[in-house]
Amino acid sequence: MELIESHLCFGGEQRRYKHGSAVLGCEMTVSVFLPPDFGSHTPVLYWLSGLTCTDENFVQKAGAQRLAAELGLAIVAPDTSPRGEAVADDEGYDLGKGAGFYVNATQAPWASHYRMDDYIVKELPPLIEALGLGSRRGISGHSMGGHGALVLALRNRDFYGSVSAFSPISNPVNCPWGKKAFGAYLGDNPADWESYDASLLLADAKAPWPVRVDVGLKDNFLEEQLRVEALEAAAAQSGSELTVHRQSGYDHSYFFVASFMEAHLRFHAAQLK
Ligand SMILES: N[C@@H](CCC(=O)N[C@@H](CS)C(=O)NCC(=O)O)C(=O)O
After folding, report:
1. In this predicted complex, what is the ipTM?
2. Does the N terminus or the C terminus of the chain have fewer Cβ atoms within 10 A?
3. PANTHER family in the record, alphabetically (predicted)?
4. Is 240 a catalytic residue?
5. What is the DSSP string of 109-167?
6. Which ligand 1 atom minimizes the distance to the CA of 50?
7. pTM score > 0.90 for this model?
8. Mutation to probe ligand 1, out of 47, 49, 51, 224 (largest number of atoms < 8 A from CB)
């Protein structure tokens, strides 16, 4: 990985790297916050952003660095899709570049580059841990990235030691964003979408860790797109420990994310100790 930016921040370092991704077949950028005195004892929280984001939205808007420095937590914020001239795109903001949905696409024209599942779970962690960090990993994210965090953790239960989500798309097989993206990336048969649906995965087997979710009650996407009640029903079915915090008056923005970042960082730090 080639270091392209580094800024001292609360005694830690906010870095940005670029690297060639064999999995995605393009060059990627990734932002990494390193706490002071990081080393093999330092756990790593992966943060997955939502629709229209790059690796920089979280870094600039979530306000996570002060507490991450204090807690000794590294935070990795990847980009949300493959990038570059050769990568397929769509006019809509909810498909293509900036909207990779953290799945491995099987359908043309997406399948050749859109392998965000393998990128986040297989390709990125060894590159990150080679910076001198530990292999205790948590995962969190917002909206499409909240969905990504839940799904990737539920599909890789031993790989992640903690999971949380802000405003997650909780039941994509039953919402417009999910149907559009899964139809494009995974094909027309909804049966092929099920292994990437957080609610179906959570209903199927008890989660090995407690799951924390926060949603804003003034989130415009809450009812039609997020469907957190499906996640709660799924947790009840499998006996999983899920806490959904419904935050009165908050919307879908990073102002909401920033407001509850402290609770999520403390939640992850406690479990990754
Ligand atoms: N149509 C809206 C929807 C996209 C949206 O709300 N994106 C969220 C994630 S789903 C976000 O984090 N936007 C970037 C930001 O607020 O920095 C837009 O283009 O802003």
Report:
1. 0.95
2. C
3. S-FORMYLGLUTATHIONE HYDROLASE (PTHR10061), S-FORMYLGLUTATHIONE HYDROLASE YEIG (PTHR10061:SF1)
4. no
5. TTTTT-BHHHIIIIIHHHHHHTTT--S-EEEEEBTHHHHHHHHHHHHSTTT-SEEEEES
6. 9
7. yes
8. 51
